[in-house]
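Troubleshooting log. The previous structure file for this entry was overwritten by mistake, so regenerating from the original sequence record. Sequence copied from the archived sheet and checked twice against the printout by T.R.
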Amino acid sequence: MSEFQVRNNELSELEVQTLIAAAIAARDKAYAPYSEFKVGAALLCSDGRVFSGCNVENAAYGAGICAERGAAMQAVAEGAQEFSAIAVAGWKDGRAEQDRGLAYPCGICRQFLNEFSAGHMKVYVARSITDYEKNDLSTLLLHGFGPKNLEV
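Regenerated output below.
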């Protein structure tokens, strides 16, 4: 079904690089005429499927959407509701790899991803397929609010 085998939320180095490559490919499709800061995301679901998204800006700034939520909405629209990992790549065109910062998911995206992962997902933030940081969503969204909080 997929080139990914999710095992205890851990991926092989090749799988991580493949996920990051998908995020970079999505980044190239971003619509960012105002900030010129393009972001791509590739979301790995627990069943091995990968969904991509890119940021889409709008002249009415609040109407834009982040790459991470774009990928997540595509996944949910296709019936996936358990997320295992996401790769995010974002920078302005023309930046040399060593000059690229790391584009972490914003707070809204962290909360959105938490809904479908219970905080147990890996977040790979990349400058390139070989230069990236690995995080746990639960670390990036400390004390996140999720479905279990509604059971109390």
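Residues 13-27 form the longest helix (15 residues). Archived copy saved in two places this time.
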